[in-house]
Design goal:
This protein has 80 residues and is an all-alpha fold. The protein has helices at 4-7, 11-21, 29-38, 42-53, 56-61, 63-79. 75% of the residues lie in helices and 0% in strands. It is globular, with a radius of gyration of 13 Å. The model has no long low-confidence stretch (mean pLDDT 91).
């Protein structure tokens, strides 16, 4: 992973990716963390996350997480 100045991502964008790197113990834990740590509604969080997946700076910052989430998103889109 690179330094924030290298990737060009802001603190909030980095925090979103950091939450996505974690595993969560059960239903609702991630959404609770989103509200408590970022002060965002889950809906807004997922909007930001989706935009991040299309941002080349996010790929530079955390390629493993971004590529994993892109694959998950593509699989969901194929099922529709």
């Amino acid at each position: 992973m690179t330094d924030a100045s290298d990737s060009g991502l802001g603190e909030r964008e980095q925090a979103v990716l950091a939450l996505e790197r974690r595993s969560w113990p059960g239903p609702g834990a991630k959404e609770r963390a989103v509200r408590e740590r970022l002060g965002l509604s889950p809906t807004r969080y997922y909007q930001l996350l989706n935009a991040l997946l299309d941002d080349p700076r996010a790929l530079v910052h955390d390629p493993v997480t971004v590529n994993r989430l892109r694959r998950v998103r593509a699989e969901k889109e194929q099922r529709r």
